[in-house]
Amino acid sequence: MKIFSMDNKLHQSALKLVKLFYLSFLMIIMSVPLVTLGTAFSAGYYTYHKIYYCDDERSLARLYFASFKENFRETVGVSATILVLMGILYINFQAAAKGLLFFSGLKFVFLLLLILLAVFGLYYFSLAARFTNDVKSRLIATLSTALLNLPITLFLFVLVVAGYFCVTIIPITFLIAPAVLVMLDHGFCEKVFRFYESAQQEGI
To 5 degrees, how large is the angle CA 178–CA 37–CA 67? Predict the structure, then answer.
């Protein structure tokens, strides 16, 4: 019967769901030190891209750990820096929310900066998964990409907010949230990245 066929859409969907859970598991485990959060995301993006867009036949775990190891030095420093900045913004947000600062309205400014920093991180670590360059060049590319592709930046902004509320309201979604974030982020960022790839190939 076709329902048991490997090519059956239901079977393919179930298999993809299992792989997403497995990818999320790897990302969560490798994010435990926190400073490797960005590296774990970058490896997840790379793995998702290789499996579903490059038809790479290597195992998911092998792809993931190979990418994690390769990008570790270029991403862990930026990841730690972003986490520190987010921590500072969060402390100030809480202080403003509790009326400890001279203007309580600052809480909205700090909240906005928190979300924008998260969006910046998504761009940066996605770029790290797809392109090989130094940290300075990647930081510049991240900023220019975010500014030149405002519709995608807005989507990522909404994605960060929606993801936060989803995990907060339904905590169990935390188990698959990392891979879903990678999947949605990949769907939009790749439109930009493919343009960059074409430009590089043409020597623009």
Answer: 85
Q: Which of 7-11, 29-33, 189-193 shows the lowest per-residue confidence on average (mean pLDDT)?
A: 7-11
Q: Per-residue pLDDT for 3 more than 70?
A: no
Which residue stretches of the chain are H helix?
Answer: 9-30, 37-53, 60-97, 106-130, 135-148, 150-169, 177-201
Q: Give dist(CA 98, CA 118) in Å, integer.
A: 23
User: For position 133, what pLDDT does the model report?
Assistant: 83
Mean pLDDT of the chain: 89
pTM confidence score: 0.89
- The answer to whether 150 and 91 are in contact (CB under 8 A) is no
Contact present, 138 and 127 (Cβ < 8 Å): yes
Cα 132–Cα 121–Cα 119 angle in degrees, nearest 5:
130
What's the number of CA atoms in the CB half-sphere (13 Å) around residue 77? 7
- Ramachandran quadrant class, 144 (left: phi over 0; alpha: psi -120 to 50; beta: rest): alpha
Alpha-carbon distances, residue 179 vs 21, 26, 99, 141, 195 (angstroms): 7, 10, 37, 24, 24
Distance of CA 71 to the CA centre of its chain: 14
Report how far residue 8's alpha carbon sits from residue 1's, in angstroms, rounded to the nearest whole number: 10
